[in-house]
Specification:
Helix content is 68%, strand content 0%. It is an all-alpha fold. Helix 3 packs antiparallel against helix 5, helix 7 packs parallel to helix 9 and helix 8 runs parallel beside helix 10. The radius of gyration is 20 Å and the shape is globular. Bound molecules: fe (ii) ion (2 copies). The site of one fe (ii) ion has 5 residues, from helix 8.
Length: 310
């Protein structure tokens, strides 16, 4: 236990950490409150209509499997940051992030149990598994292994460069570019009034909306930290470019890969997703490096970015 007597009160209410922590508490949600009945019905009706239901279903299952495994990976790999940070306000925030990543994992696990399996049963299809290696490709494994390494480097007397690399991998690339591109693709594909060839899945859509609110805080925290490191001249901004540029081909290999076995020829195109990922990248880097630009405020970080509200 450590008592910081230079502080008159325990928390700094103006700090990013404690503000984001409060925002997380106020916006709390429970994955089990999401109604999944309509998703089951919509999927059964849709898959009964199409020529090759199995192949059609696989496209959606690949997205859900990758999100589920990704949320699990970030749940498992965040703890080193909590060990490395020593400011109570930062700690307050990281507790919420860890809990939220666990909730996201919970949501995707539930979706497979309560939507995918019952639909398969209803249609007489073989029962599938979200952990089947067939859903994951090389860039996926590679990116998450590198993320884990960058996070675990924080456990051993971390330098400002170690922190910068960790935030670049985890908050900027995995959460800020890969996940946001993935939500965009899934919400475009399974939202209302988008692609008539695909079913509208309101529970999946709602889950993504709630997860994105949480992720807005996560990305904002990482960007805020990177901005501090750059503007206090603790790290060279070139390190950020180098780290992110190395990882971007992996993002495209996951989120926008036309060679992927289960990518459907309906819905959003890989080219559009690549464009979206590149835009996110440029926007994030500008916000971090340009001293005149702030990290977006909480309302805009947590609002629906790039997707029409339903
Ligand atoms: Fe998450
Ligand atoms: Fe996150």
């Amino acid at each position: 236990m450590y008592i910081d007597s230079t502080r008159h009160l325990q928390l700094d209410r103006e700090s990013r950490g404690t503000r984001y922590y409060r925002n997380a508490v106020e916006r709390h949600w429970d994955p089990f409150d999401i109604d999944l009945d309509r998703d089951r019905e919509a999927l059964v009706a849709h898959l009964r209509e199409v020529d090759d239901p199995e192949q059609h279903f696989d496209g959606m299952k690949m997205g859900v499997a990758r999100f589920g495994a990704g949320e699990q990976a970030v749940t498992e790999d965040l703890a080193p940051l909590a060990v490395a940070l020593d400011d109570i306000d930062d700690q307050m925030f990281v507790t919420t992030q860890l809990y939220e990543e666990a909730k996201h994992t919970d949501h995707f696990d539930r979706y497979w149990r309560e939507v995918v399996h019952p639909v398969e049963e209803e249609l007489g299809l073989e029962q599938s598994s979200p952990t089947d290696p067939k859903w994951f490709n090389e860039p996926y494994h590679d990116l998450f292994e590198r993320n884990e390494e960058a996070m675990y480097a924080l456990l051993d007397d971390p330098t400002p460069e170690d922190f910068a690399r960790a935030y670049c991998h985890y908050h900027l690339v995995v959460e800020g570019i890969l996940a946001q591109t993935g939500y965009y693709g899934m919400q475009q594909s399974y939202g209302k009034d988008t692609y008539t060839e695909l079913p509208y899945l309101p529970g999946l859509y709602e889950g993504f909306t709630l997860i994105r609110q949480d992720e807005g805080r996560h990305v904002g925290f990482g960007m805020g930290k990177l901005k501090e490191l750059v503007h206090e001249e603790a790290v060279d901004p070139g390190l950020l470019d180098e780290t992110v540029n190395e990882l971007l081909p992996l993002v495209n290999g996951i989120a926008a890969n036309p060679e992927d076995q289960y990518v459907e020829d309906v819905g959003i195109s890989p080219e559009e997703l690549q464009r979206f990922a590149a835009e996110k990248h440029v926007q994030r880097m500008e916000q971090i490096k340009d001293a005149a630009q702030d990290v977006p405020d909480l309302d805009s970080l947590t609002e629906l970015e790039g997707v029409g509200d339903d």
